[in-house]
Amino acid sequence: EPEVTQTPSHQVTQMGQEVILRCVPISNHLYFYWYRQILGQKVEFLVSFYNNEISEKSEIFDDQFSVERPDGSNFTLKIRSTKLEDSAMYFCASSTGGNEKLFFGSGTQLSVL
Amino acid sequence: EDQVTQSPEALRLQEGESSSLNCSYTVSGLRGLFWYRQDPGKGPEFLFTLYSAGEEKEKERLKATLTKKESFLHITAPKPEDSATYLCAVYNQGGKLIFGQGTELSVKP
Fold this sequence. Notes:
- The complex is a heterodimer of chains A (113) and B (109).
- Chain A is mostly beta strands.
- Chain A is 0% helix and 50% strand.
- Chain B has strands spanning 3-7, 10-14, 19-26, 33-38, 45-50, 56-59, 62-66, 70-75, 84-91, 97-99, 103-108.
- In chain B, the strands form two sheets. In chain B, strands 2, 4, 5, 9, 10 and 11 form a six-stranded mixed sheet that branches. In chain B, strands 1-3-8-7-6 form a five-stranded antiparallel sheet, with no helix packed on it.
- Chain A binds chain B through residues 4, 33, 41-45, 48, 55-56, 58, 89, 91, 93, 98-107, 109, and chain B through 31-32, 34, 36, 41-46, 49, 87, 89, 91, 94-102.
């Protein structure tokens, strides 16, 4: 069964460093998303991406965040200068349509020290 | 403001003891209500989509129902392997999938 894959599964970084989280969405999906989940809290929307541009973003997704689809298969989330409060599990997701079910990856646990 | 509230926060059942989880939502223009299952350290796994009041979906021991203001996830004769966090989510008009905080279900043998 097709699945969304994310790498790395764990990332430890120092505050102020840049990190790139990587995702390979399901191949025939057109919509791509990043969500995050701080330990013990809700799954929160960060950004949606369609047709090579951001279609929606949350207030969390400020200038420190960016997304890119560098080729036909990868979808990345970059955090330019990490903060302690960026520590969370980051989930990539994809779907066939804008209001369709999302398929989630297993997540990248980001720890900012 | 668009909002999803789930109750209870945690539910402990004995194997075979049926129960229901609740999801109340406030959203302008419902475009779908989704139930997901999340195991520790994993991403949410899709269970059901419901689009209109009165709709019901079933899968094994799970049954999801929808009214104009809430959804229920009924669990019939649960087994220990049903232990997980169950998440409810709705699309708002902006196209964001908004999640509730989840119900952590524990089923003891």
